[in-house]
Amino acid sequence: MSGLHLVHILGLLLLSYTVSSDSLLGSRRLILRSIDNEKNNGDLRDYAVDLNDTNFGAVLRDTPATFAVVEFFAHWCPACRNYKPHYEKVARLFNGPDAVHPGMIVMTRVDCASKINTKLCDKFSVSHYPMLFWGSPSKFVTGGWEPKQGKSDIRVIDDARTADQLLNWINKRMGSSFGLDDEKFENEHLSSNVSDPGQIARAVYDIEEATSTAYDIILDHKMIKPDTRASLIKFLQLLVAHHPSRRCRKGTAELLVSFDDLYPSDMWSSSNLEDDNGKGSLTNFQICGKDVPRGYWMFCRGSKNDSRGFSCGLWVLLHSLSVRIEDGESQFTFTAICDFIHNFFICEECRQHFYKMCSSVSGPFNKTRDFALWLWSAHNKVNDRLVKEEASVGTGDPKFPKMMWPPKQLCSSCYFSHDQRNNKIDWNQDAVYKFLTTYYGKTLVSLYKDKGDLGNDRTDGALEDLVTSTNAVVVPVGAALAIAIASCAFGALACYWRSQQKSRKPRRTWN
């Protein structure tokens, strides 16, 4: 065979290999594209939360959900593999940032075939696969299940072979009417929270969501400027002292410790000013913890995507601050909130309207009661303005219309009289203040008072130097003494801040 023929044959073989390779590559691309399409369509998405012995307690302890479903399975079990799509159809409704019904039920799975979970599965006497349990998350953390025990807070879900059967079981248990075809904000299961005072307890999670969202807005819009720096520090100091969530207080304190380094008062005159306005460094601070924002609202969830949410969560935060301060902090709180809204709330009309109400106040606030009632009155003025505007353009939320607050369903004693024709109310302000302190104070965190990262738990030793050393402003004595937060880590932060401040050269303050 001549060399030419050999080259020709080798060329043909190479061409054949290339065509075959291209064909195989094309088939592979087609398969990958098909898989990607299935993922994008949600067909392969896992919604249930995988738990194991190391994270079981932490996840169920921290979930905002009222109920939990735990599926015990084995990855080698054919029946478990076949059941998974049914379980995921139901989990889609309740889990994740795109949940149709968020904050109600957390759907979880535990693989008993994994050795790490042996003791956990024994704790719940798992006798077959899959095996499903129902109960409050806290009961799963503190208890177990025995087949012969009498009354138990944890129940076996005994009729759930399909997604329909599982959801029917849940509906019977909860008295609900959830459907597998429910879509986000397009359902009939959204209940009003007006007539149930206990629902405000769930707003702790929305306050965390609003706090984190506000922080992200400030960074995204590069809103920290020479003339806004001081007002932001004031508001952060207020949050460290009185935010209802301990994890938000802790995150805010950590931010304040480093604030002067990230945003020194003379940084705007420096030729080395970062283009990103410091955002890159500040985004390392998770102001309310690593799991926030969650991407959904609970107490503040509207019946459609563009209603309530952030504005509701922010209002609840402000009201909760107004009833948690001491008398000596009332004027500081008033100026901190007014300046924060004026400088960092990006809805222009709302911002101007709120600032106008702030500017109309003639004298200082000397009592917590006076400031709390002023904020309540201001909120009602906002509602009165918005309800008229929403009615004229049809943008209101039909399930949550703007109203005078509180309604009679929540506080009948708050009304001396109500002229409904002219919408004139003679308020009993003593009763209103009592309602505000209970509703936005005690009741707000009562549902989760056993969770140390939410309540307003404090140590006996006051960390008076924690927020008073910032160059921009000085917190009143009452607020400084209120920074006795229940965490040894906060003590370390205070000591660190004190040493940092003593070693710094004095800087010009922004007023």
Automatic annotation (TrEMBL):
The chain crosses the membrane at residues 473-497. Residues 24-175 form the Thioredoxin domain. It is an enzyme of class 1 (oxidoreductase). It catalyses: 2 R'C(R)SH + O2 = R'C(R)S-S(R)CR' + H2O2. It is found in: Secreted. This is Sulfhydryl oxidase. Gene3D superfamilies: ERV/ALR sulfhydryl oxidase domain (1.20.120.310), Glutaredoxin (3.40.30.10). The keyword Secreted applies. Residues 1-21 form the signal peptide. Residues 303-405 form the ERV/ALR sulfhydryl oxidase domain. Its cofactor is FAD. InterPro entries: ERV/ALR_sulphydryl_oxid_sf (IPR036774), ERV/ALR_sulphydryl_oxidase (IPR017905), Sulfhydryl_oxidase (IPR039798), Thioredoxin-like_sf (IPR036249), Thioredoxin_CS (IPR017937), Thioredoxin_domain (IPR013766). GO terms for cellular component: extracellular space; Golgi membrane. GO terms for molecular function: flavin-dependent sulfhydryl oxidase activity; protein disulfide isomerase activity. Its EC number is 1.8.3.2. Pfam families: Evr1_Alr, Thioredoxin. Keywords: Disulfide bond, FAD, Flavoprotein, Glycoprotein, Membrane, Oxidoreductase, Redox-active center, Secreted, Signal, Transmembrane, Transmembrane helix. GO terms for biological process: protein folding. The keyword Aminoacyl-tRNA synthetase does not apply. It comes from the Eukaryota.
